[in-house]
Amino acid sequence: MNNLRYKVLIGTGGIGSGKFFTLNGNHTLGREESRSGHFLAQRDYCKLHIISHYVKVLLGPNFQVITVGMVGEDELGHQIFNEMAETGFDMRFVEFHEKAPTLNSICFLYPDGTGGNLTIDDSACNYVGIEYISQLEGEFTKYRGKGIVLAAAEVPLEARKELLQLATHYSFYRVANFTTGEMHAALSNGSLKMVNLLGINLDEAGVVAEMDAETSPPLDLVMETIKRLRIENPSIHLSITAGKYGSWTWDGNAINHSSAIPVQVVSSAGAGDAHLAGIIVGLISGFHLFQAQELGSLAASLSVTSPHTIHPGINRTSLYQFAKDKNVALSSQVLDFITN
Question: What is d(CA 112, CA 31) in angstroms, rounded to the nearest whole number?
Answer without folding.
Answer: 20
